[in-house]
Amino acid sequence: MRTTGIQELLKSRSLLFCDGAWGTIFQSAGLKPGESSELWNRDKRKKVLEVAQSYVDLGVDMIETNSFGGNRITLAGSGLENDAAELNRIAAEISREAAGDKCLVLGSVGPTGKILMMGDVSENEMYDAFAEQVHALKQGGADAICIETMTALDEAELAVKAAVENTDLEIVCTFTFAKTVGGDYKTVMGVTPAQMAEKMLSAGASIIGTNCGNGIEAMIPVVKAFRSFNEDVPLLVQANAGVPKIENGKTVFPETPDEMVSHVPDLIDAGVSIIGGCCGTTPAHIIAIMINNGIIPAL
């Protein structure tokens, strides 16, 4: 396990790099629609390890874990709610095995899919689900918790609180924003970057940002919105490989590595601290970004 955390690394380097998508690669390897990728941690460990290793081998500073939908509320949809702790622990163990002491491991925590105000789940049930998950991720060897793809302040706050109270790890929190008719960016629950930043930093997150929902070009104004609220907090951006399209009945993310790279200078100028990838990105996208920034010599 690395003894130097994300914020410590940022003291010596102004820009860090994270991994790209995992689900995109799993789908190419046979993950079926509706199938729980977290179950692969136990049943297809080798395939999960291969994905983790593919990013570690690039020389990234951090990789995530295959645990995005690993809370017991989400897993209940596959009848796996009682396996939540085990599947999260194994997810962290796999990423830890791949990372060794070469890079940090971020325990991925996604939303439950439930809305508190609808009464489908109670605050206590949601908190307990997140607490179980983050504890298992720490047990498996995660260096930090990455609460991602959030849209609602109340759910994200419970997730951050669970991480603060049940681990001693650094906490990253990212929300997914979309451009409104007014030209600004909000989540589907109406949350602005400034509102998210204020609430998550107060709750205990030390690194914030945005992931999914947008290609890298659309992430630039989101980063600027964050920076207008807080000039110093580390910001993580994990963009999709463009806006998805349906081709021959399949979802395709059209942005090539070169197209993604072309927007990175503006993203850096806007104030990003950590760059990774989300849906549709691959090791090819990440290595292109790293080469472009002089981290890896061009071949």
Key structural traits:
299 residues; alpha/beta; TIM Barrel; two-stranded antiparallel sheet; 13 helices; 43% helix
Characterize the structure shown:
- With 299 residues, this protein is an alpha/beta fold.
- The chain has one domain (9-292): Homocysteine-binding-like domain (TIM Barrel, Alpha-Beta Barrel), CATH 3.20.20.
- 43% of the residues lie in helices and 18% in strands.
- The protein is built from 13 helices and twelve strands.
- An eight-stranded parallel beta sheet has the order 1-12-9-8-5-4-3-2, sandwiched between helices. The chain has a two-stranded antiparallel sheet with strand order 6-7. The protein has a two-stranded antiparallel ribbon with strand order 10-11.
- It is globular and about 45 Å long.
- It starts with 5 loop residues before the first helix and ends in a 7-residue tail after the last helix.
Q: What separation lies between the terminal Cα atoms?
A: 30 Å
- The CATH topology corresponds to TIM Barrel
Beta-strand content = 15-25%
The average pLDDT score comes to: 95
Which stretches are poorly predicted, pLDDT < 50 over at least 5 residues?
none
Largest sheet: 8 strands, parallel
Global morphology: globular
H/E element sequence: HEHHHEHHEHEHEEEHEHEEEHHEH
Based on CA atoms alone, the radius of gyration comes out at 18 Å
Compute the number of structural domains. 1
Structural class label? alpha/beta
**Name given to the CATH homologous superfamily:** Homocysteine-binding-like domain
Please give the share of residues in helix: 40-55%
What is the second-level CATH architecture?
A: Alpha-Beta Barrel
Strand order of the largest sheet: 1-12-9-8-5-4-3-2
Total beta strand runs:
12
User: Given this structure, which CATH class is correct?
Assistant: Alpha Beta
* Count of discrete alpha- or pi-helical segments spanning 4 or more residues: 13
